[in-house]
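Table S2 (continued). Query chain:
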Amino acid sequence: MDTIKHLFAQKLMDIKAIKLQPNEPFTWASGWKSPIYTDNRKTLGFSEVRTFVKLELCHAIQQHFPEAEAVAGVATGAIAQGALVADELGLPYAYVRPKPKDHGMGNQVEGELKQGAKVVVVEDLISTGGSSLKAVEALRQYGVEVVGMVASFTYGFPVAEQAFREAGVELITLSDYAAVLEQAAKTGYISEADKAVLAEWRKDPSTWGK
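Corresponding output:
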């Protein structure tokens, strides 16, 4: 899996789905200053990378959650990825909205999942884990069993790791922040000095740059 992590990290950098700017940090919606910006949805625009993500997520599910009977994607970033994975595996599919619709049927889970079904959740990006675990809770309230989650990328924040442990959800990702830093430094995408700054950011992203 470590080989996959570094290979996928390189693919993300190649299509500029990951941008590293230690000296010109981005501002996230949360207000955090960040030297990295990740947009895994860009993988959908590159057929080779899109297929890579689909197949590797499928392999992760087959290896870690072979009991899965259905797939659920988290809106909006993982709706397409989840559908691709479910189609490849030949499993039922649904996606989870951030909150129930305020009209029509008021659904939060869109699609059709059997009550009690063993479901694996597909996500594109894990930061604090809050929105991902809200989707898990919505699925549990819907009446299915969440057996685990697979995602394209995680920042590996301690707060997220703790949240997943407390929620009883096993998380498997194709790549992570550490692999990106190693690959970026190895290929000259960033300098060793930049690597130190990026590593420092991950320790306490909420206060970094202030």
